[in-house]
Predict the structure.
Amino acid sequence: MEKNKQFCTFYLGDLFFGVEVDNVQEVFKYQEMTRVPLAHSVVRGLINLRGQIITAIDLRARLGMDELPDGQKPMNVVVRTEEGVVSLLVDKIAEVLEVSEDDFERPPDTIDEITRELVLGVYKLENKLLLTLDTEKTVRLGPPVSMAGEV
Amino acid sequence: MDKNSNPDSDLLKGKEPVAPDMTPDPINKDQTEADMEVSSVDNSEDMSGMDEIINEFIVESYENLDQLDQDLVGLEQNPGEVSILSSIFRTIHTIKGTCGFIGFSKLESVAHVGENLLSKLRDGALTLDPPIPSALLAMVDAIRQMLSCIEKSQNEGDVDYSELIETLTTLQKGESAKIAPAPTETSSVGKSEEVAPIAQNEPPVEILVPESKKEDSPAKPAEPSEGVERKQEGRSMADTNIRVDVKLLDQLMNLVGELVLARNQILQFSSKDQDAGFLATTQHLNLVTTELQEGVMKTRMQPIGNVWSKFPRVVRDLATSCGKKIRLEMEGKETELDKTLIEAIKDPLTHIIRNSADHGIESPEDRKAAGKPEEGLLRLRAFHEGGQVNIEIIDDGNGINPEKIKQKALEKHLITPDQASRMSDHDLVNLVFAAGFSTAEKVTHVSGRGVGMDVVKTNIEKIGGTVDIQSTYGEGTTLKIKIPLTLAIIPALTVMTGGDRYAIPQVNLLELVLLEGDQIKKNVEFIQGAPVYRLRGQLLPLIYLSEELKVKKKDDNDKVNIVVLQADERQFGLVVEGVRDTEEIVVKPLSQQLKGIPAFSGATIMGDGKVALILDVMGLAQSARVVTQTRQRARLESSEKGDGKETDKQTLLLFGIGEKGRMAIPLSMVARLEEFKQADIEKSGAQDVVQYRGEIMPLIYLSKIFNGDTSYTERETLQAVVYTKNGRSVALVADKILDIVEESITIKRASNRKGTLGTMVVQNLVTDLLDAESIVREHDPTFFDNQSLATV
């Protein structure tokens, strides 16, 4: 079927998310990061990806979810966006799924506002729901926290 | 090229003579160049800049022409192909445009008629009849011929192309015309495989000898051989240049960056290893890497002069059309910056310069009336500073009237009256960058259409730069552009704070100071809670990096590491928790998500492969208010008091005399603050002196003068205000240095004491204003005597 799309899927808590495969550069396990003081609170740090410095965004924080429980290390889903290559930190990476457009639906109005803003839609799979992420909006952050001494 | 399908050779017969006055006069062009030389300050350099443009043009045009040959033949085979037509049209249009710009009028006129013909074809007003491709090919040959001539001798040559022009014009009118070939020089000059068939198809007798050849018979014999020579040289220039995709250079640059990092790591290992062979290899690797790095950097770097070289012409033309006299000076042409940045600043710079010439510099009459020289001065300056490229455009024109800006901005509702009342002149002037703002009272063809400065600002900010205007109404305007070197490899100092590493560009670094134990309490003082350190008598404001970055301190030891940094004209000390070594780092830009944090200018990968942030010294200084601190605090205070007056503000140094006495001296009169040990004080007659900077400096004890107090002899160290005039210094010994404040000097009570100018209230306390001059004169009547120094 032509209308099928492929998604790279991952978990955040018990939520099942997907990013279109074409937008994903690569995935890799947890890597140490350099924190960035004064940055937006969802920015976890900078990662050296084979000589390229990329920013890691905590997707849990971005969606207003609780922090990952202690001792658990997030994994990186590196996405290509208009704002450059960015790593999204997720709990666990799952498989690449092919889904049919027929199963697509707009996100319901009842879900949390931030999530609704960043989620393009929902694919109704056999046994679960796949939320697809708007990566462009996800990596577009507001201005950083105000600088020291700014009135 | 398949010329056999060209049935047009018979069209060459019976051509009509061409009016000689159609030939563009080559002298015109020479005049233009001569004019240009006059208008520019530095002839020789300017001409080499011109050469460069011409060379670029030639290399580019050759490439385009090769493409054109293919396109034209392709067109002949598929006459309906609009995309080929458009491509040909664009190529000819580009050549025409560039010639017009450089001033090759003959070449331009040929390309121009060709372009006309092509535009008719493209629009479908003409069909591609057989004679047309041949005529166009003849035009290509003519252009090629002129190019080779230009390359050889900097002018278009004497060949007459008027009949070719005529043919093209006739064809364009839709009449069937006969094809004039490119004049005969073609056969010698442009004798490439593609051209040759034309000549073969034409019966030799019917090739017209250009008139110029008849006239120029003495030059004739030399020409064929010269032509061959030209041909070879023409290609050689194209051969020594390779066009490389900038992307490839980016990639190379990244790889070299990686190599530098790997090298750094290996160097770290080798320092632990004793193996001589390994050490030698490492050293070699080190050298080669450095050279490779420099080489690759160079491929991307271009002197800013490449962009500037067109400005003398721009300014000259503008000056002529506006009836002004403008001299253009350039400084720092050789300042190199990355190719992509050069491209990016080209348009904004041109715009700014047009603006300065059009709006900034006044007409000679106005200038005369204002007491300025008739000739306006426009200066371009470029230099590297603080890991950035600075470009300044300075004019001595009329400047910007902040009042006018305010009016305009209010009219256009860019600001509210409330905002306007609170804005400084500097802020007002910088409103010209607001979108939709234009200050020109009349719209000229040059500028003043309301778009412009905001676009300039946007374009500069797009490459991570900043732009700022400083203007004194009536005296001139300085526009400062700062562009970061995003692709550079720079030496940097690594420091630690909160357990993280940060890199500080070495260019900002002045020195390192380490305070231990007792020294900390003794040397770090506080002015209204703001820590300062006395660095050789000068107060150095301190900034704690951990506080600025709002990170927790990691180790709270009893050491204070002060990194003395330079930001703009001010110095400040950055307190960090540890200082590591210096390292070459590859500056990488921060991602979009992290832009806008003023404390960081980029990031880099350290020897161990981890990422470290690069501190933006200027940004830190600004956010910590080091740079504008005093001014802003003063403004804040005055507005709190409600007097709102900012006149006569002076920075005063406050010091204590005796138990309660407070005195002030304008900081402008203070050369330095010094501390002397009692042991260093020597006698010269009855006079106490110290050896200071290779001179003997007398000491004047203020407490003795004012209070008759001589307790200073019991003190171990003495604090002194050094007063310098005409190269001579004297130390005014105070009992205690208190503070530095900005105050307007309002004398409440006239002086009743010798040695003071009066009494005022500073920080709610009565303070005497020291009359330093009278005290010094009292002490040494010859001190202010200019001659005394020379005779001593």
Observations:
- Chain B touches chain A at residues 254, 257-258, 261, 498, 500-501, 547-551, 588, 590-594, 596-600, 603-605, 609-613, 623-625 (CB under 8 Å).
- The CA atoms of residues 75 and 84 of chain B lie 6 Å apart.
- The mean pLDDT of chain B is 73.
